[in-house]
Amino acid sequence: MSDPKTDVLKKTPTDHEIHDLIKNRWSPRAFADTPVSDTDLQSLFEAGRWAASSNNWQPWNIVWGKKGSEAYDRIMNVLVEFNQGWAKNAPVLMLGVFDKKTPDGKDNFHALHDLGQFSANMAIQAQSMGIAIHQMAGLDHEKALKEFKFPDTYHVATAIAAGYYGGEVSDVPEDLQKEEKSERKRKKQDEFVFNGDYVQRADVSES
To answer: pTM of the full predicted structure?
Structure first.
């Protein structure tokens, strides 16, 4: 019998040694039918809670809902159609929101970075629990802001689908199934790491 834990792993061609929780994390569009419990979600949110934050302002906010709930349907309704086509597989949907202002009303240029740290912490905690996290930019940001009654100083930055690894690729729209099975790719370090001045790199993207 195959091992579901290894069946869902993608090949990650790393150039240097990294932790398995990072190496094996990826963002599927298919999820197992296994429900995500409130206790599991609280662990994910707790991991995010302890992320680094500029001045400890913690500008992040998370809206969440489980499949079958009103909150889930409301989140689904602010996703773009492309993401709705596969996000319906996820047992949990979330929105990542941040306050654009500091407590004294100035622009907080680090707020999006801090929400990203929250999400990264949450994703690694999720990976340790066999839970996959798929973050999405494709949503109607203004509609989401109004739908969930956030003040105008807030921005809905991302949507997040969450659920246990192990879903059926056939549940994903046909044009995305190949991507579910493909090898992961990343830029090489020398394209974005500089021990000194920035140097523009030649375009090495594949045609």
So the answer is: 0.90
